[in-house]
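The data are quoted verbatim here:
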Amino acid sequence: MSNTDRITAQRIAESLEEPVDEAANLARKLGLRPYAVNYWIVDYDEMNELIAYDGFQTRYPHWRWGMKYDRQRKQNQFLGGKAFEIVNNDDPAHAFLQESNSLADQKAVITHVEAHADFFAHNQWFGLFSGGRTPNAAAMLARHADTIADYMADPEIEREAVERWVDTIQCLDTNIDRHRAFASASADEPADIEIDDIADQLAELDLESAVVEEVFDDEWLDAQRAEEESATVPPEPEADLLAFFWRHGMAYDDESGKAVEMTDWQRDVLELLRREAYYFAAQRMTKVMNEGWAAYWESMMMGEEAFAGTDEFLSYADHQARVLASPGLNPYKLGKELWEYIENTVNRREVCERLLRVEGVTWRNFHDVVDFAAAQDALDPDPMVAAVDPDRLDALDPADPRVDGEALAEATSGEVDIERYPWKLFTYQGMAERHYSLVKPQNRGFLARTSREELERVSRYLFDDSRYATIEDALADVEYAAGWDRLFEIRESHNDVTFLDEFLTQEFVDDNDYFTYEFTRTTGDYRATSTDYEDVKKKLLLQFTNFGKPTITVHDGNYNNRNELLLAHHYNGVMLDLERTRQTLERVFNLWGRPVNLKTIVKELDDHDLEVAKRRQREPEPTERGKLIRYDGMDFSVEDLPWEAVEDIAATDVDYDTKPDEWLA
């Protein structure tokens, strides 16, 4: 970096000191508890490098980073893309701001980052990697980079061999057990004790022959040998392919044309990249939740709390529109909408519970006796909370739980700029009332359209016998923070699959115009097929189960008693891409050294059935069949399998149930 560049970066950093400090203060007022964040000012090229490196400044040497850098640069140059920020999951977190962005963009990024850092710190899926401790990922990745660079520089190891080995492992880096806490591949490795060794050790113990014959007789030793020889490896299907290969795999040697033991450097690199796969797994598993969480709180801070100044608001509105209007499945938009919907439904239920305790109000007459316009007015925040008048600070009571007494005293003495930062006067309770979701203009009809089914369900589980004399009394007792409290609970325990599975409803689908579409063989194009929430949910969940990649497990390391490997594709209604399958099996062969087999299920369609379906204007029903794909290092072969051979991997519907019972218990 030139001296001029350093001066520019320093000037920008100084101008952002106050926004950084105040964004952190505002985040905490709203109930967020993020990791501390270190902000870095970078130029355009440095930002592209960081994006290519997955948000870190140092990664191991490999051609893929250059490819990602070039793709990112061209996307910005030719497709009008714009890099706003990148932040990594670390403690402290590191966020990078591009120096060419406007102040409105920088503020948006800072508020967005604070929410990400909160999600990193509290979502339990991130804790699976670090064992509940705070991560030190930058140092870990730097160590890995040094280790792999040293292997590449070793005169006894070909650099190309290291790169090919890295390529092979990267091809399988989503095939880990993402529902288990990370552990070294050697942690569960059983000790290799040969039965003949046991016999030798018994002889060395110099035990009396009667004792040996009584306890460790030949029949017992033979039984152990038989059990050892017949044991299946693995005993149960193994989801962590990289750990399995670390323990049992071999490397294929081109020169000798056979499997050989992995070298120390190969085994070391395999475990390093496996560790990195586990680190990045949580980010892949929570993309919708995490980006939606950040977009939700960024919008509240920048828009509703006016963290974007009057002269910056239009620029910020354009910024947010570009993010939320990105084409395709947009995790920012889907996540933000779902978080807002959950907040509304929790707040609505809280209000309904209060109203159903009013004398004379039941789930049957609810819509007839409740004046929803009046109820909305009653739920409006206290005017003293909604809008702060700097000239009437004496009207705020420091003993009010909604008011931050210390900040009020500082504001009264002129130490706090209330016109710029009115939120400083309030506690979490005050902020929750200030931003109560049901009174926002876009949500004012949400309470009125509560269904009779929902009201009956709420009524059924009302265990509090206390009653209210009037509707006004009931609404005065509403907990404004109920929605936020529930959001923070959900943020701790869910991933994208469980998040969508539990909270995506028909009401949400209808409100936000979601639908499914399919390629129809009868017309040869794509058609909208359903607005049913179950169909939408299944379609979405297919893209998030196992990061949207096929789920593959190891079933047998001695298939057909020939030391061949048997993998299984857990079919969820979507067929494997045959060309990619072949490329992957070639990589797997390098980690096993002997023939590899993969059993899967395919859909086959008869030409006659297709013609009949076209004439009748309906979709044909394909037949599902079991297949075994085999690669022996030279050739591929495909053979039919009887249905009973693949029944254990067949989905009865769409398989997206991925809740880990171990840590939810």
Summary: DSSP finds 31 helices and twelve strands in the chain. Residues 331-512 form one domain. The first helix runs from residue 3 to 15. The CA atoms of residues 327 and 333 lie 10 Å apart.
